[in-house]
Batch of 2 targets.
Target 1
Amino acid sequence: MPTPTPTRAAGLDALEDFVPRAGAAYARDRNHDDGPSRSNVSGLSPYLRHRLVTEQEVVEAVLAHTGLGAAEKFVQEVFWRTYWKGWLEQNPEVWRRYRHDVAQLTAGDLPPGHHDAVEGRSGIDAMDAWVRELVDTGYLHNHTRMWFASIWVFTLGLPWQLGADFFHRHLLDGDAASNTLSWRWVAGLQTRGKTYLATASNISRFTDGRFSPAGLATTARALDEEALPARTPVDPADVVGRVGDRVGLLLHEEDLEAGSLLAERPDLVHTLLATAVSADAGARSPSGVSPVVAAFTAGAVADAAARTPDASGRPARVLTDAAPATVLSWARAEGLDTVVVPFAPVGPVAERLEALRPVLDAEGIALVTVRRRWDGTAWPHAARGFFPFRERIPALVRQL
Ligand SMILES: Cc1cc2nc3c(=O)[nH]c(=O)nc-3n(C[C@H](O)[C@H](O)[C@H](O)COP(=O)(O)OP(=O)(O)OC[C@H]3O[C@@H](n4cnc5c(N)ncnc54)[C@H](O)[C@@H]3O)c2cc1C
């Protein structure tokens, strides 16, 4: 798999290249991790994660070529992303606790074995190779992520939150929902009591014999946690806030594709007086992100800025940082009364927008969030497990 270039054009090329492989071949071969050159999966996740390319575009391209029958498995995988986001949206306490736990765990002495594990010196050859691959490339195959998380929790006995944090800091596609909830799933917290146990024979089979680690845990007792509060239903409104006359658009790293977002809302924004992009990849973790992730995010932001001119044709301004004061000074300088932003699902960007809102409010500037129809339509169905959600995918595909 080539190192992804952080532009929408490169993402669309990667999509075009993958589309002929999204049918039966994907369903048959996708679980194999035969090394970094893999062609059995799409490698689209860094693009989807920042919405340089959208879920809708990916599903439409695959369906136009292959149809839902043969591409069902691939389409379901794309909807896993949507499902996790919808589930976390309705259970934000899970993110709050995760943030709290990571802050506490990284503030004190780290548990024995942690340092060796993240330095690729655990002594388990497969883990050590995967650490190097993750750190160097920002990517791991899905099956490998499952084995890694399982060995981290059940063989090395390390806190799942620190493993999730390590992934979040290093994955180009690092995502609050997919990452946190997948780690919880492996640990037996997400589907309560059901864990994922990595075995040497499974690893050997699906790495085509590259690895067959000895000494792995043979049992996986589910972790436990305090019961979660009742679910918060998804807000039915796709647009929250009142749009004034002097409107600016502020993109962020959760959604860098203004064209299709605003095309869904032609009623909302007639004239964009100013456009800007801000990002803070480092907010994913108290320990910041890897240079590979920082560079990909910065590249994606620069690409979005060039693609998002305002009404007079000026490219979007890349804000020096994502602090509320920086956004406020841009909005003031442009004389805005409204800052429109793509809706940010539960995660670091949503936290940032929560801090920004009162700062803009105090200056009489409204912060208006616009959620894509894709999210607004699918998320309410992510209230329970994935299987009831999966039943709805054909109907969702028709609707969307
Ligand atoms: C412990 C663990 C942590 C993970 N952390 C992340 C993360 O931070 N960000 C992330 O995007 N995915 C995460 N995943 C899910 C999955 O591993 C990746 O989305 C996938 O490997 C990306 O590679 P791809 O684009 O080649 O996938 P493909 O197999 O080509 O799938 C196409 C797209 O579908 C979505 N997708 C596929 N599988 C999953 C899945 N299981 N869950 C959610 N979405 C999926 C992705 O957007 C992906 O790009 C994690 C999985 C595990 C087990």
Target 2
Amino acid sequence: MRLSLNPAIHSIFGTGQEDGRMGLIPGPELWEDFDTVLLQGYTIVRSMRWKQMVLRITIYPLEDELHNVAGAVGLFRDVTESERLEKTRREYVANVSHELHTPVSALRALSETLIDNMVPDEETKKRYYGHMLHETVRLSRLIDDLLTLSRLQSGAVSTQREVCHINRIMSDVADRYTVLAGEKSIEFSFSPLPDDLTIISSADLVEQVLIILLDNAIKYTLPDGSIKLFASLDDNNIKVSVSDTGIGISPDDLPHIFERFYKADKAHATQGTGLGLAIAFEIIQRLGEQIYVESQPGKGSTFTFTLTRESAAT
Ligand SMILES: Nc1ncnc2c1ncn2[C@@H]1O[C@H](COP(=O)(O)OP(=O)(O)OP(=O)(O)O)[C@@H](O)[C@H]1O
Ligand SMILES: [Mg+2]
């Protein structure tokens, strides 16, 4: 039987020089499939791993005018990337379902107990209503975060740029966080840039990133620690940093913290779903800027993002 081959097959399997069938496609099971197709006349689809690749192979029969099997054609598709995307999608759906499940189950259990009149005293009832409110707030925050993230990823968030005064954005946010840090006995300091510099950016989005970073700084810093918000100038860039003396992030976790749902605390004992930094990362991408982090476990973390100066500004 005649064998013709698309040369692309050599680049998939890294073959070429060797003789014989196995020298062309080093998969005995595939050659068996070819034989079966030729003999039985039906189509076979097979997935196989080859080194780092995932291949989807379809082998189907070729018929002559008299409907006899005259040959077989094998179609080799490299589906590595689509498999990877599918895995990411599955993990995402599993994460979302898990995060929605927890507050919804709590709400269900609490409301069932109340409806069944299992709570006789008013005091306990009130506490249960408090828990229900807490779970509802958690649920709506989660949904807000998911919507924000998907709007950012689909490009539906306006990144309309305007001239903004960076010191003003920072000091507005700093006012609020001085109070919040104080409530947890954390020292908060804010150092504006010496000059009133302007950037071309979206004030709302920059503020959102600052809030995400400062929320984390407060959450992951113990009482008596300190948090600094400051900016520095570097050529055409302004760098804005949030630095804390908190628990820090281990080198193992550090490369993952901008991923959706990633939490260093695997037990999810701290509040939050692990979407904050994914949102910050997406915003910074949209703005065409950069964000990075330095951290040492037990010492603290510094998150920095860049902002491009309005070139005409003095
Ligand atoms: N300043 C920080 N210090 C120590 N760890 C941090 C800090 N910021 C982030 N992390 C780690 O990175 C993880 C991801 O942060 P992210 O803001 O995305 O999620 P989260 O704060 O856990 O939840 P969410 O922001 O959705 O409420 C956190 O769970 C935490 O482990
Ligand atoms: Mg967070």
